[in-house]
Amino acid sequence: MAAAAVLFQILACLGWGALLLAGLGLDRRLAAPERAAWSFSAGVGVVGWLAFWPGIAGLFTPAVLATLLAAGLPGLVRLRGDWPRPHLSWAAAGLAGLMILHLGFQGVQAQSPPVDADSLAYHYDLPKRFLEQGRIVFVPRAVDGAVPLLVQLTYAPMLGLGGEVALTLWAVATTWGAAAMLWAVARRWSGDCWAAAAALLFVGTPAVLYGGGNGQVEVRLALFATLGLAALGRWWQERDLRWLALAGLAAGLMMAGKFTGLLFATALGAVVLLRPRRLAAVPLFGLCALAAGGQWYGWNFVNSGDPVFPMLFGLLGPERVRFWTSEADVFFRQAFLATEMPLAHTLGNLLSYPLRATFAPLPAFESGRTGLGVAPMLLTPFAVVAAWRERGRLAASPVAAVVLAVVMFYGLWFFLGGSQRVRHLLPLLPVVMALAVAGAARWATAPGRRLLLAAGVAVVLVVQAGGGALAAQWFLGNWHGDRDAYYGATVGAYPVAAWSNRHLGPGDRLLNPYRDINYLLDVPFYHAHPVDQSLVDMSQRRLDPVRHWREIRALGITHIIAAPRIGDLSEAAEAEFHIPARALWLTARVLARQGCAEPVAQLSGWQTLSRTTRGTSYETSFTLLRLTPATCPYEAGHG
Amino acid sequence: MAEWAKLAAAALWMAVVLVLWAAQFGDMAARLWGG
């Protein structure tokens, strides 16, 4: 059933994308393999875009989503065409072997339940909640709630029609979709074999090994970024505005997939400004981007008053922005944004960031484990030499537009982005990889050069395959079909979810500060993240049980969690010990002492910080408390 | 510049980049197999 659902959505995406390309009159301008790759990239966006409208209309059901998918199938007839015969060689056989190896690794991960924290917190949780409620609901959380969710909407049909395994298989399918798009772009510049090597370098990149097989959006956004840049390149070369319309639509899909899509659209828009006939081109590009990506900004504005919730709070003020406060804003900027950007915004840091991220990363870059690999650094000098040699005809080629847009995006991201995590650049990696490999292949004109280049690429591919094996081995060793044992050894707060699912009912509501059990909860809950929401003040600055009581009662909370267990810490240790969600822990203890809550369960579990490296597990403990308003002095109207 | 010199420069660049990259694996290996 899961595989059938995934196949259905793959075909629907191919069909919808082909219809879009045909509607623009561009499908016959692409060779058959390119048409399929471009169609899939565009089609994933079309499906995510279409699902929004029944979602806000309260028609977010598996039946409606299936109808929406089925409506795209007629587009498949547009994909007929002549496919090139595979060119058999030792290199092609080696690449095919590596591809099968990576597919095997990903298959191991795909048959295991999702375990990535962000996926459990929102990528997979939000589609699950939308399906439960039959509509898209506004989630007033910064970073992982009130954000553009086009990609997550493509997960909903998978969950609704095929279940959890379909979700994880879809992640694999879209990863290979991005690789296919890379190949389709690169083969124009470097031929099929080098293009396949570039695609495999992408698939084995640490950030792809990390985020490809789960709900992380960056790999999926690579579909739209590559489509947008490739279409921009064709417009640059051919001056046909239909390519620009497609680039605008793809930029809009990026906007609808993540806030950084706004920077992507700006970068492409800046390149459009460099060309003649700006008066027609710029509005066309802008309108297409707005049509494809404006819906989530409108949705945020209607629900919260801030289209990029809560980034404009300082500008709009508390009277215009709902679900956010001045206190929450200050805490959010200190506790989240400041830690995400360790490098000062200087030109020197802009230039040195790629080197540092590759060879000497700061922890906040996260490039030690989820970086972009070494291939771009290894190959770019060769591509630069080749570009210099062909500089005479470079300005008119699509490469010029693509390079300009990539550099522009990088600059905007570095100076205006909200995070310096290197994986946030991942959506542009396929194009960078295509350029680097194609450029290096053009440098390698003599047999000696080709041999050297092939050897360098082969070393990276083999090391990356080793990384893939490491990533897969954990799933192989830990998933044996027992969900409780699997999650119990990995997700520290899993016992809370398991207990709540067994003992709480539809009339209860849990106050849950642990983001990685959101998806695992089958009972009503409010996710009280310490930093990115303001309805329950979780900042660790002060103890205010009266305010906390008022806030959690307003949300209809019936159960709260204290971790570590109340009584596990001495008074002296409390001051020193860093307790996640400290304010809630202190409040829970006061509420228990004041007769406002009573312990109903003492639980313990194991948190594993890294699935790859050893020795990162530690024990967790929790007290679950049931609120007792009847005996609480803080209850309104009470004595 | 002679072709052999270009090849040597290219090989040197690749070796330096790959060695610098691999140098990071020491810490990773210690964490992987260090228990």
Q: How does this model look, in words?
A:
The complex is a heterodimer of chains A (639) and B (35). Chain A is mainly alpha-helical. Chain A has 2 domains: 2-84 and 107-475, no CATH class; 484-631. Chain A is built from 29 helices and 5 strands. Chain A has helices at residues 2-23, 32-56, 62-70, 90-110, 117-123, 125-133, 150-153, 155-162, 164-190, 192-203, 206-211, 218-238, 241-257, 261-273, 278-293, 295-304, 313-316, 326-340, 347-359, 367-370, 375-389, 398-416, 429-443, 447-478, 483-488, 494-503, 545-554, 571-576, 582-593, and strands at residues 510-512, 525-527, 559-562, 597-608, 617-627. Chain A has a 3-stranded antiparallel sheet. Chain A has a two-stranded parallel sheet with strand order 1-2. The longest helix of chain A is centred in the C-terminal third of the chain and has 32 residues, at 447-478. The relative contact order of chain A is 0.09. The model of chain A has no long low-confidence stretch (mean pLDDT 92). Chain B has one domain (3-33). The mean pLDDT of chain B is 83. By secondary structure, chain B is mainly α. Chain B contains 2 helices and no strands. Chains A and B meet through helix 21 and helix 24 of A and helix 1 and helix 2 of B.
Keywords:
heterodimer, A: 639 residues, mainly alpha, 3-stranded antiparallel sheet, two-stranded parallel ribbon, 29 helices, 5% strand, B: 35 residues, 2 helices
In a nutshell, what does this entry contain?
The complex is a heterodimer of chains A (639) and B (35). Chain A has 639 residues and is mainly alpha-helical.
**Major sheet description of chain B:** none
Fraction in helix of chain A: 55-70%
Helix content class of chain B:
over 70%
Stretches of chain B where pLDDT is under 50 for at least 5 consecutive residues are none
**Domain tally of chain A:** 2
Low-confidence stretches of chain A: none
> How many distinct helices of chain B?
2
Question: What's the Cα radius of gyration of chain B?
Answer: 15 Å
Please tell me what the overall shape of chain B is.
rod-shaped
Decide which structural class fits the backbone of chain B: mainly alpha
Order of helices and strands of chain B, N to C?
A: HH
Mean pLDDT of chain A: 92
Rg over alpha carbons of chain A:
25 Å
Shape of chain A: globular
Which two chains touch over the largest interface? Answer: A-B, 23 and 20 residues
The secondary-structure class of chain A comes to: mainly alpha
Tally of separate domains of chain B: 1
How far apart the termini of chain B lie comes to: 51 Å
Number of beta-strand segments of chain A:
5
Spatial sequence of strands, sheet with the most strands of chain A? 3-5-4
